[in-house]
Amino acid sequence: MIYIKEFYIRIFGYYDGFMPFYSVLFVLFATIVLFFLFHKTEAYKKFRSLKMYDIIWRWEWRNEKVVSLWCYCPTCGEQLVCDDEYSHSKVLLVNKTTFFICKTCGDIEKGRVVGGNRSYVLKIVKFEISKRVANGNFENEQ
Ligand SMILES: [Zn+2]
User: What is the pTM of this model?
Assistant: First the structure.
């Protein structure tokens, strides 16, 4: 008991009989807060799909990073093929276009992004994912 008193006096400079009780309450409260914080940070890891540019984007989480990000057909669910052959124009931004094509649906264009090539598009989608996670309004869209 004398050690407990000394402990409180060393930290707070005084001691009263309720301090151990408050300490237990504080530890319980801190544990509950940490539990909810932990669950909140983990919740976004269930967010693994989103609809953008009329196509479905899916990815995995490795630690806090988005990995294996790719696009899928909104009709049949197959992986899309990306054609960014026309994304190297240096004249106009609108001339830089990446097309997303579904082979399974019969070489049909499922979406297009104006402004850059596939790595540009992946960066934009990753940015959108981080934005939604930061805002806390994320829900799987497919
Ligand atoms: Zn398809």
Answer: 0.69
